[in-house]
Design goal:
Serine Threonine Protein Phosphatase 5, Tetratricopeptide repeat
Length: about 240
């Protein structure tokens, strides 16, 4: 199944209807997560995670979904956008008032991290960007790019942590945070909205996972019903489940 191109809406429907047994994770080739959902099936936790996953998939655009789940089918790497983000980071560092943490463009770990990122080796990119931050904890490009890699690996907490650090040290291209493909997964998370509403900074409570409001979940279910992705009966069943949360 992992050799076939994944479809965003199919993943969303599987997560919505069978998320409690992790069927959508097996469909996406994520066996480890699928087994974890199976183990949690009798606790009710996997059902809640399945709903959140469904909303995430339906909220993502096709390009962002393909970058994350159909890497083998992409022939054109998002190099231009990635490089532009790095160039903007340089500008931000130069204009920082303190003027004592300009980016080291010769940092070999930043360069190798970018190369691995563009080859879809996000774990390798994270490792290299982490090494760059060991050398210079104020390396804006490393913080921004590692946040992108963590977002693609669905690690919300660490993605937000490094975005917060990037902004702290001078990154101010907030439009890039709002539109960068690699941050698409992060942007549909409730934690991101707290980050956004706090002027792109974390507060003491932003790092912890906070569930979506029931009313927001029900509104999204209604949108799925209007789009014909849910029958009236399925809508009512899912609405009752959410109301009990």
């Amino acid at each position: 199944m992992s050799q076939l191109k994944k479809e965003k809406d199919i993943a969303g429907i599987l997560a919505l209807l069978f998320g409690f047994i992790g069927l959508h994770r097996f469909y996406l080739g994520q066996r480890g997560k699928g087994i974890l959902y199976l183990l949690l099936a009798f606790t009710g936790i996997s059902a809640i995670l399945g709903l959140i996953d469904a909303f995430t998939f339906f909220s993502m655009d096709n390009k962002s979904f393909d970058i994350k789940y159909n890497r083998d089918f992409l022939r054109v790497l998002p190099k231009k956008e990635f490089d532009q983000a790095g160039k903007r980071d340089v500008g931000n560092a130069k204009h920082n008032k303190k003027g004592n943490f300009s980016m080291d463009n010769g940092n070999i770990h930043v360069k190798s991290g970018k190369s691995k990122f563009l080859s879809y080796d996000y774990d390798g990119a994270i490792s290299d960007f982490s090494k760059a931050l060991e050398i210079n904890p104020r390396e804006i490009a490393a913080h921004f790019n590692i946040a992108c890699a963590y977002s693609l690996n669905e690690n919300i907490e660490k993605a937000l942590f490094h975005l917060d650090k990037a902004v702290l040290y001078g990154f101010d291209d907030f439009e890039k945070i709002k539109t960068h493909d690699a941050l698409a997964f992060l942007r549909v998370q409730p934690e991101y909205m707290l980050f956004l509403n706090n002027n792109f900074r974390l507060s003491g409570n932003n790092i912890k996972n906070e569930p979506l409001l029931n009313t927001e979940n029900i509104e999204k279910l209604e949108q799925l019903r209007l789009r014909g992705l849910l029958t009236d009966e399925e809508f009512n069943v899912q609405k009752m489940k959410i109301s009990r949360l």
